[in-house]
Amino acid sequence: MTTLEDSIRVEVTTEYIEQQSSPDEDKYLFSYTITIINLGDSAAKLETRHWLITDANGHISEVQGAGVVGETPTIAPNTAYQYTSGTVLETPVGIMQGSYGMVSEKGESFKAIIPPFRLAVPGLLH
């Protein structure tokens, strides 16, 4: 049997935004596009987000809040919700990971895990 946690899959693509970054000022801007796929049998509403963003210096930023990009989408079975957001790091490499607080159609709360993904300036060997 599939658990609620297993019913949501999160996929990520990232991009370094060179024209808005200032390496001389330790400012590296990255965008990330998240696709949240509902593999379950019922709709699930995304209510909260929780991020841990770690740069190459080991500095961790924690971000928590309601929804994503100003929305709290309900994702129907066998559909996906996609959004793009961004973050600024002080180093050219970092890692993001976290979870979404979800609620099933039946009112059951659960977490959808966002697996760790890498943010990196292209061409770096770090």
TrEMBL record:
One GO biological process term: error-free translesion synthesis
The transmembrane residues are none
Q: Which domain of life is it from?
A: Bacteria
Domain ApaG positions: 2-126
Coiled-coil parts of chain: none
Q: What is this protein called?
A: Protein ApaG
